[in-house]
What does this fold into?
Amino acid sequence: MNGLQRMLKDIEMEVNLTRHLIGKDALDDQVMAAIKQVPRHEFLPADYRFLAYDDGPAPIGSGQTISQPYIVALMSDLLGTKPTDTILEIGTGSGYQTAILSKLVKQVYSLEIIEGLSTQARRRLKKLGYNNVMVRTGDGSFGWPEHAPYDGIIVTAAAADIPQPLIDQLKAGGRLVIPVGLPYSYQELMVVEKKADGKVETRNVLGVSFVPLVCGYESPLTGLEQ
It folds into this structure.
């Protein structure tokens, strides 16, 4: 069994173990197809590529991590995407989650506050041919109003509270998937659905552990788009 096959089996096992929390016995077929198509090792530093197909997070530099494959797959599933969707991602990181989303939707806009990671991810995604992605350096807590509203928004770091700009930039009927909780403490993966009248409904899915969302409502978007 090669690394990818092992990773897929591990995701399947995690789904089985958490099915009573996530409310399903299997993740969306299109999400799993995207997981199969994106080479996770390309999104890790050379020194950590041996961890590429383990079902766990791994360092990517600047104190950040690439998320556990099961969590990437689950969050992608929870978004409930359609091929015509436009998605906003907060926290590009290495670009792995971005690449998965690019296989599922029409357009992905992604923000990363750490300039070095943003630049590396932009170049990596372009090199690998993910052409329906735009990456910019900026504080994701502001969202990206220029391209709003979005069919879905995904946040790949834990926020103490749900940033109001993200709710404002979500389309009616859209979903926001976000881990919420204090840094290095208990966090809950949440799905926020925006109704036609602008009201929101939230659902807690399961406990998670993410690096904290770096934000401060201090600076607008900067840097260059891909």
